[in-house]
Amino acid sequence: MGQLGVGAAGYSHGPGDTLYFTAPRAGLTAGFLRRVSEREGAVYPMERDLTSGSVPRVIFSFSLPYLLSYFLQTLYGMADLFIIGQFNGVESTTAVSIGSQVMHMITVMITGLAMGSTVLIGRAVGAKDQRGAAQAAGNTATMFFALSAVLTLGLLAFVKPVVEVMATPDPAVPGTVSYLTICFAGIPFITAYNVISSVFRGMGDTRSPMYFVAVACGLNIALDYLFIGALQSGAAGAALGTTLSQTASVLISCAAIKKKKMIPGMERQDFYPRKQICSSILKVGVPVALQDGFIQVSFILITVFANRRGISDAAAVGIVEKLIGILFLVPSTMLSCVSALAAQNIGAGKHDRARELLKDAILITVVFGIGASFLMQLFAEEEVALFATSKDVIARGGQYMRGYVWDCIFAGIHFCFSGYFCAYGLSQISFLHNPVSIVCARIPLSYAASVYFAGTLFPMGLAAPAGSALSVAVCLAAFQWMNRRGGENGKNNSG
To answer: Which contacts (CB < 8 Å, 24+ apart) does range 441-448 have?
Structure first.
């Protein structure tokens, strides 16, 4: 495949004179996938074409099942906190809060790594290359199976050190250890669910993952009441309910895939590892996973700062993190939506349409973020009170929420840009702006606020939007660079 243009980025011709934007050695593109399928079999019709029609309509139709899936996933942690708060004291609530934050970090990194699969499959779908998509899906399954096995064994060996690193308050240590031990054992099923979801979303199918997680969510709530309420198992019961429900979701999704042949054209040989396919998945996914990891590390450090201030502040920060998780459903949905939709349009050579997708997604997140921020200024304590009975925890949670909630606006913007960069195989940009914002703003500001504002959590909450504002500035500069580079090469291609 001949390269057109030089430098950090350019456009290249694929089969059928389709134009693709690539980073240097960006790895597998839709063009390579198509060449593989031309050698090994026919090109079949794809799952869903997202390269035509009204852009806002496509965004809403694609993102609504995605949003519902995220909401149901968020209910996992919310249900654990809500139910354990009804039957146990602040020690168990803190244990579940800290443990679930560690698990959230692991989950988002797995999801970020799987975005490489979503992008490659999306490009193949846009290029009408079903064989290529099947091969990318099969290699994804093989690679992540090995990863989950290594991850599970490694984390189980270091449960107690992880609890110590989190500066877990002494009363909450036993519950946190029990929670993480059970959840670490369930990592293969967490990985399996996220891999299955990434494959379907790359093919334009956001409904199937929504059905799978809906089953898991309902089962998780029922099991929480059984283990936490009826059997009085505390934090361990919360972890057991989450792990068993996730396992059930994976088994149901695998049965559905087999029965409905939801990945048409897939063969046993598609699961044999291909160096070029796996390396290309990792080239997109690793930077995304690392940037998500950096973000979660910053959240964990903030939790550590709060834990050192006492158990009330620790519980307040943990509860607000869960509430923020709900508000972040829209920005997170837009990130995944932009990456999947833009990837298909890039595969089809519709670069102007990909930019239009980005702009409309940013508008949606900004409008939502402004509305959510103003509402939380009025009702912060009422929301925290859903998960706590302590007046001190409620008051401090309200302070933290009023500062933190403004991050919905700024994070929403850079989430959309990150999805766009990933669709072009430039996830390195996302990897750049997040560490910069974390090191230069989020962590130092949080630490300073924890030291100099001992009577309130409000300044600590403001550290998050300050960091995201810096990320937005980096993303805007990178976007302008991409546009100038495209203009200089004269290769911008509208669908």
So the answer is: 441/466, 441/467, 441/469, 441/470, 442/298, 442/302, 442/466, 442/467, 443/298, 443/301, 443/302, 446/298, 446/301, 446/302, 446/305, 447/301, 447/305
Sign of torsion over alpha carbons 226, 227, 228, 229: positive
Q: Which amino acid is at 339?
A: S
**What is the SS3 assignment for 52?**
coil
CB-based burial of residue 11 (10 Å sphere; 0-12 exposed, 13-18 middle, 19+ buried)?
A: buried
DSSP characters over 56-75: HHHHHHHHHHHHHHHHHHHH
pTM score: 0.63
Domain spans, the chain:
5-489
Nearest to 297 by CA among 114, 469, 150, 102: 102
**Using CA atoms, how far apart are residues 256 and 276, in angstroms rounded to an integer?**
29
User: Alpha carbon 159 to chain centroid distance?
Assistant: 24
Query: In the structure encoding, which two tokens stand for residue 161, read together?
Result: 């050190």
- With a pLDDT cut of 90, the percent of the chain lying above it is 8
Strand partners, 13: 19
Token pair, residue 276, equals: 């070029």
Q: Which tokens belong to 169?
A: 């308050």
Apex CA 154: angle with CA 110 and CA 107, to 5°?
Answer: 20
Nearest to 113 by CA among 268, 249, 278: 278
DSSP string, 258-308: HHHTSSTT--GGGGS--HHHHHHHHHHHHHHHHHHHHHHHHHHHHHHHHHT
* Sequence-separated (6 or more) residues with CB below 8 Å from residue 379: none
Q: Tens digit of pLDDT for each residue in 261-275?
A: 656 666 677 677 777
Which has the minimum average pLDDT: 63-77, 360-374, 448-462, 474-488? 63-77
Q: What residues have CB less than 8 Å from 381, skipping those under 6 apart? A: 394, 395, 397, 398
Residue 44's closest CA among 261, 232, 244, 253?
261
- Burial degree of 31 (CB within 10 A; 0-12, 13-18, 19+): buried
Task: Kindly tell me the burial class for residue 187, based on how many C-beta atoms sit within 10 Å of its own C-beta (0-12, 13-18, 19 or more).
Answer: buried
User: Coil, strand, or helix at residue 80?
Assistant: helix
Which H or E element spans position 404? helix 391-404
| CA atoms 274, 259, 223, 65: torsion sign | positive
Q: How far apart are CA 1 and CA 33, in angstroms?
A: 12
- Answer yes or no: are the C-beta atoms of 28 and 276 closer than 8 Å: yes
Q: Which residues of 38-60 are buried (b: 16+ CB within 10 A; e: fewer)?
A: eeeeebeebbeebbeeebeebbe
Helix (H, G, I), strand (E, B) or coil at 4: strand
Output the pLDDT for position 77: 62
